[in-house]
Amino acid sequence: ASTGNEQMQMYQLNKDRPEDVQVVSDMSAAFTKEALPHDQNAWRGMASSFETGRRKIFTLLKTPGDVSSAVCFVGIWQLAGEFQHLARVGPVYTDSHHRRQGLSRKLVAHVCKTFFTENGGKVISLYADADYGASNALYISLGFKQVDKACIVDW
Prior knowledge:
This protein is of the alpha+beta class.
């Protein structure tokens, strides 16, 4: 059975293209609304780290060549200098109308493979909500292992 996803195009968003920056802002805001309802300004930091070039963001386009048709995105932040072999994946977000189709799996796998094979990467970390079983199952199936739990504080 066809899922309709066969024609989707993988695309690395470009911080120098205004339409790409808009997609990052929109999807970051949507992610924040769902995942971080207590901090509705968190998306600004995500978008800012993309605009400064510190975070690369990949997406799947429903219509090849049309960045406004992005249905999911995955960011990766590679550290610099002596720590350039380390990276952090996040955020991972799929539009609610396109979930449970394997899109995040495809994109996270691509981002990780690219980091390891093309960038000399050795370790990738990510932070996930311990209460959200679907994303945790996805990450475990891709080879991630839970090594610790984190605590955060809001000021």
